[in-house]
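Supplementary notes for students who missed Thursday's class. We covered one full example, reproduced here. Read the sequence, then the structure, then the short commentary at the end.
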Amino acid sequence: MATGWLRGRVKAVTSGDCLVIMGNVKSGPPPEKTLTLASLIAPKMARRDGRDEPFAWESREFLRKKCIGQEVVFKVDYAVPSIHREFGNVFMGDTNIALAIVQAGWARVRPQVGSSTDVSPYLEQLLKAEEAAKAEELGIWTKVPGAAEAAIRDLPPSGVGQDTGFDAHALLEQNKGLTLAAIVEQVRDGSTVRVMLLPSFHYVQVYLAGVQCPSVGRRPFVDSTAATAAADAAGNGVGALSLEEGSTEEAAAAAAGGAPSAAQRLAASAAAAEQKESGAEPFALEAKHFTEVRCLNREVRVVLEGVDGKFSNLVGTLHYPSGDSVVNLSLELVQNGLAKVVEWSANMLEASAKGALKSAELESKKQRLRMWTNFVPPQSNSIAFRDNFTGKVVEVVSGDCIVVADDAAAEGTPQAERRVNLSSIRAKKMGNPRRDEKPEPYAREAKEFLRSRLIGQPVAVQMEYTRKMPPMEAGGPEGRNMEFGSAFLLTGKTDTPAPAAPATTASGDAAPAVPAGGVNVAEMLVTRGLATVVRHRDFEERSSQYDALLAAEAKAVKQKKNIHSNKDAPATHINDLSLHGMANKARGFLPFLQRGKRMAAVVDYVLSGHRFKLIIPRESCAIAFALSGVRCPGKGEPFSEHAIAFMRRRIMQHEVEIEVETVDKTGTFIGSLWADRTNAGALLLQAGLAKLHPSFTPDRTAEGHLLISAETQAKNACIKVWEGYVEGQDAANAAASEASLLQAHGKQELVHVQVTEVLGGGLFYVVETTSGLLPRLEGAIKELQLSDAKTPAPGTFAPKKGEFVFAQFSADDSWARAMVVAAPADPTPARTSEYTVFYIDYGNQETLPFSRLRPLDQPSVAPSSFPRGKAEGLGLAQLCRLAHVKVPLLEEDFGQEAAEEVQGLTGGKTLLARVEERDASAGTKVKGQGSGVCWVVTLVDSETSTSVNAALLQAGLARLERRRGGVRNPALAAVLEGLKERQEMARQSRLHIWQYGDVDSDEEDDRGRRPGPPGGRK
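Structure (token representation):
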């Protein structure tokens, strides 16, 4: 028995006269001593199936509030070995705790029995204090009628350790989400406590939600009698061990072999409790001690979160006071590496609370704290990537991906635009129209939300990590890297508050500071329920604002916003007239678009410097649109990419105004476009990134004089496409270019042509321009005034297959010569009977009603008498195919893109067609579109000397034909070598047909075989 004064801290107060005092050690659970105050008898609290003595609860509460957690000095004055009890005195500062209890009237003084020395050395002071308390009627000495009865707690069955009839589900239903006052009476392990709920006095066991500490194992076996007593004490959460008068006699009787007394049973219980648990997991005792020193016998706040499904155990969150703040015990345990997060109970918490636990666990793992000492992080496909830059948003790809023009990079360079995938969020997919994939619900809403707030606005971007996508997702054998970052809007276009950056990122690095006034774009989306937060695995890189994103998502889920609601997404139907096969339908929309004069539109995509895809909200349609009279360099030509970058920065996804003039045969609308009241064509011309069409006149389009003035300024400045320009030398330059081509390619025939129809698969129709036959023919037909002539009666005019007629083109109501390709079986057609006709002077084909046909009975314009020039068909249009290359058919992958590329490279231009050979393998007779003699040509732009064949190869939209045997012609060998270099560039860049690697050419089509009847083109 210790004889000197010791120092310690009060860990628990088990009754009005008993304390548990622990020592101070540097690490691990400290030694403890249970000390009963000498010569005192406090009222006993209820045990199993019992009830309190009067004022037992008040006595214990007085001592608990006074001493718990306080530094004290104590001394053991005597002990009773038979019951393993030690008695002594405790001082807190200058205050004698036993004396303070007696003075307050909450305990009686046990007088000395006979000559026994087992008494307190302060017995006289205690007796005097007791007399004074009696005189003042304090505490247990009160004489107020009924006070003693009122001081006995009315305990529910659970308050005295009876589990029978306790309904955990009912208790949860009554108190779900409420903050309940409680006192922790016992700590089973670091994450399991038994609490006394106040004021109901329900004694319940609560598992901390979301966490689990290491198990302390099982206690060793003790005598059944002692075990019963231990269960009684533990069941009431009471360690109140008091020694009544006569206890020494009971101890003597027990030593003589009599039945054990109550005091002996309680002593056995205390001895069993003090033994170390067997089979405790590492850090289990440390976790238990961590919880004890913060919560045991302290007033806490409990929030019940749920009940487990198997044993009906209550699960909740426990908060304890620490100074002026309140601390979440679960979070503290995880942060100190003493608990792990468990999903089954974490799912009962709000998303923000669960996220905080996950973040704390991740940080503990990184620091390898305590139970994570030997933790080995799993491999991840995300790699930290730090790069900060500012710029303007030029494109919103989807609800979680934007393209930003870097302020530090020059416009038009590959580094000028950077794709940023927003970190740690996922919006709904936009789908792929080419694969008939429709947008998922709320995908359009998320994209439009970002477009309306970000396009053209300055942002600060903090790149955070890259992720290597698997081949299936990336579309290639090696996959690709996606870069993720956080974007902060630097203007006040939203009322979302700016978040504060955390101290560290997922990788443990210091997180970059949030830009002043910046608003997290990802948080804007998540707050409005337009995106969800990605649940990262441990050690996966994540957004530096991850906690804020989780909190925003929890708020959106609670408010049932958008994707978190049970409502269907708003129905949005866009009639896309820019798709393949929509040319006829596009022509039908022309009157509606012309009638509106200037109308609002949104630029959905920049296809080339002068050609765009627009969405017209008023008409709920999407159209292909080209600037009237303005032509930018084609793909592969100098300044082509500059022109596209120039327009992307100025109009991409901006709200603009358009005025439609007409629609061409491909369904592309032609007109003027204004962005911020500035003519877009004038911007291009003034920047030297476009030229006016040679046949352009000021009266052709709105503000035509501005276009001419803008081009003149660029010419005078000799910028971009006008570099080296000398006025008056245009004709000489063109002649020199043509001469050089003739010299380079020997005796091959060169014909000046204009492309009038693109069929796909490398097939197209051209008209010779040198002879001027087409304008002459158009003038002759116009003089006939066919529109004024009445429709012939069905009985007098019955066109048959193969017959030549005049047909009225549905796009612009102009008349042209045509051949009937298909006619109704009825020999007497009605006005609504439909005929398929092939326009022999243009190469296009369409189906018309009988009312749009007229007999071709004028000999001056008949195909048999009107000259055809060099064409080898029925009219002026000549079928051609690109030489040396194989282009995908329209129905094949990238066939549509190839046709669009040919249209963009040739539209409105006069080109040189170098005729390599004439292909008559499919017959010489013209039976309709795609039939007859075919010229195999190389199309060359005489201004740039760039061939369309080479441009398609470089764009990855065609591949070289396989040749059997060598090439003897040196000039042809040089041409093929140049084409091969262009193809290799596309292959290395994985463009279009090369995106899956090398194209399988074992089943090479015979180029003598023509494509089947084309379905039109775009």
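Commentary. The longest helix spans residues 970-988. The chain has a mean pLDDT of 81. If anything here is unclear, bring it to office hours.
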